[in-house]
């Protein structure tokens, strides 16, 4: 019975992985982000045009939270980055 309860509890969480790696889903999801963010390579090549009020999302994987140069972050986000939030 316990295994069934755990399975039922975890199953909805796994549903989000159904679209993992689907470029069309990712592009659609990014529409919410692009009003503030762009994805631009260091050489200036735009992968995805977007706004400039938020930091560039190129290379965000593994980047310390609140650490992108040229943007002002709230104290809480900077503190979270200092505590190891990536």
TrEMBL record:
<feature type="domain" description="Cytochrome c">
    <location>
        <begin position="21"/>
        <end position="86"/>
    </location>
</feature>
<keyword id="KW-0349">Heme</keyword>
<dbReference type="GO" id="GO:0046872">
    <property type="term" value="F:metal ion binding"/>
</dbReference>
<dbReference type="GO" id="GO:0009055">
    <property type="term" value="F:electron transfer activity"/>
</dbReference>
<dbReference type="GO" id="GO:0020037">
    <property type="term" value="F:heme binding"/>
</dbReference>
<keyword id="KW-0479">Metal-binding</keyword>
<dbReference type="InterPro" id="IPR036909">
    <property type="entry name" value="Cyt_c-like_dom_sf"/>
</dbReference>
<protein>
    <recommendedName>
        <fullName>Cytochrome c domain-containing protein</fullName>
    </recommendedName>
</protein>
<dbReference type="InterPro" id="IPR009056">
    <property type="entry name" value="Cyt_c-like_dom"/>
</dbReference>
<feature type="signal peptide">
    <location>
        <begin position="1"/>
        <end position="20"/>
    </location>
</feature>
<keyword id="KW-0408">Iron</keyword>
<keyword id="KW-0732">Signal</keyword>
């Amino acid at each position: 019975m316990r295994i069934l309860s755990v399975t039922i509890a975890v199953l909805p969480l796994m549903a989000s992985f159904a679209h993992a790696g689907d470029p069309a889903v990712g592009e659609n999801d990014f529409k919410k982000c692009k009003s503030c963010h762009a994805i631009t390579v260091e050489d200036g090549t735009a992968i995805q045009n977007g706004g400039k009020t938020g930091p560039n999302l190129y290379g965000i994987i593994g980047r310390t939270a609140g650490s992108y140069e040229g943007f002002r972050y709230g104290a809480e986000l900077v503190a979270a980055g200092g505590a190891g939030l990536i």
